[in-house]
């Protein structure tokens, strides 16, 4: 299906997939659809990805609710804060660190196994399997839950895929719970550790007043951060690296530009020096 769509889009920039479903393949539409002040609401299909649980920033359809959630995390996403995080922005390790100050150590250990209730869970496998199976039927709109139930009833394979998705939810709840515990303990003892993660934005507003979010909403927002922050960045980096390998001229040009941004004896170029490099930014 994805391949067919890709092939058709080479000729047609806009395709109608269903009476109310359009697919765009023109780069200009990104700003029109997702840009600031866009009149496009989120798709009702988004609500289905909440899986009956609490919606998070990405799948909340109601505009006011969405705006409330955006305000909550706007400080965390502000460029000046992300600059602090940039050097780590690669993988699940990075996003767990950025969102929760959690050092998963996946890169160091070369494995993304995580222990939950004495059980070994493969973080990426559970995330991918759940998303893959739900992406197959999410386009069915109102039929989503029915098809999910049916697939669980009749296919042991699909049942296990849904089960893996559920395990990812469990891991998220565990990590959010651990971070919440730390946050509450710090508030109690007034011994604040110097952290610069996103989590406090969910607990208190800018004035330090408690937001009083329900635990399910904290879990949902943590889930979208860990989910959307990991694969998107990894895919973008993988593609950039692929094209650089295929195009040695571009690789050389970029390498020269970045090398010149290093100070003498520097191991890591500072963000201040790399943020305006024209070829890197192009
Ligand atoms: C190259 C990397 C990335 C790409 C291509 C990407 C792509 C997208 C797209 C297309 C959307 C809009 C989805 C929709 O409304 O239907 C989105 C929303 C979102 N992304 Fe990303 N993303 C990337 C990195 C990240 C990172 C690193 C994070 C977290 C730290 C993140 C968190 C979010 C959140 C929370 C939303 C929902 C925003 C809202 O609805 O207001 N994304 N992303």
UniProtKB/TrEMBL annotation:
Instruction: Give the matching InterPro entries.
Output: Cyt_P450, Cyt_P450_sf, Cytochrome_P450_monoxygenase
Task: Write out the similarity annotation.
Answer: Belongs to the cytochrome P450 family.
Name of protein: Cytochrome P450
Origin organism is Aspergillus cavernicola
- Report the Gene3D superfamilies cross-referenced here: Cytochrome P450 (1.10.630.10)
- One protein family per Pfam: p450
